[in-house]
Amino acid sequence: MQLEIAAKRLAELGHETRLRIFRHLVRGGHQGVPVGEIQTSLDIPGSTLSHHISRLINVGLVVQRREGRTLYCIPQYEELDGLIGFLKEECCINESTDNSGC
Question: Which residues form the HTH arsR-type domain (predicted)?
Answer without folding.
Answer: 1-95
